[in-house]
Amino acid sequence: MTKIRLDLVLIENQLPFFVLESLYNRALISGSGNIPSFLVLTFDYFAYCNSCNLDSDNIIIRHFIDLLRMFHLQQPIERWSPSRKESLVHLNSASELVETGVKFKVNIKTKCLLDLKFSWGVLEIPQFRVEDGTKLLIHNLVALEQCHYPYESYITNYVAILDFHINSNKDVDALIENDVLLNCLGDTDSVTNFYNGLWKNITHLNFSSNYIHLSLDLNVFCAYFVCTLSVLCA
Fold first, then answer.
1. Cα 227 to Cα 223: distance, rounded to the nearest angstrom
2. Which value, in Å, is the radius of gyration of the alpha carbons in the chain?
3. Among 75, 82, 86, 221, which residue's CB has the most CB atoms within a 10 Å radius?
4. Which residues, other chains included, contact 97 with Cβ-Cβ below 8 Å and sequence gap of 6+?
5. pTM of the entire structure?
6. What is the pLDDT of residues 2-58, one digit of tens each?
7. Where along the chain do its domains lie?
């Protein structure tokens, strides 16, 4: 991302979108032809983040970072019910999952980061690119959800899952080898430090029941694998 784009995604730099839109409309000359709306221009400017090809029709946004959050979520978003009775206590890291028989697979059917699926020992995860500006973007998306979407904290849930999966360079290497992670930062250390720092400023989290169930299924599979291996080696 360019320096201007980086400034525009900072949560502290956000202005209400309707204010910017009003100023833009006032600046237009009446009858000046087919000039695109401010929303269309905004979509074009941040098109590099619109991997889900979200259309600008009937979209209402708070500000720029709110639009980027929408870009990272597949539409229409199914409202998740937060899990009130269960909490995610433990989830094996990526390298530990591989050691217990879990196979990673890139979910090519969706570009939505949140679409994680586990079935028959295969964990499907959408491919995620880590490059300059990714950390800043994710931090500000999480900050937005902490302020405005405490019960729809989809990005924050995703970050929490990643925090469990990545503890060391070995975990990053496991995800890179399976094409789940695209490392555009160069060295593995940078990616590991990036993921390990994502969780620091999250003060509260309403974990989605979807992720709770996925995590429980993973833990049961890993426990069964270890138990079976122990019996075979006895």
1. 6
2. 20
3. 221
4. 104, 123, 165, 174, 218, 222
5. 0.82
6. 778 889 999 999 999 999 999 998 887 665 668 888 999 999 999 888 877 788 888
7. 3-71, 94-233
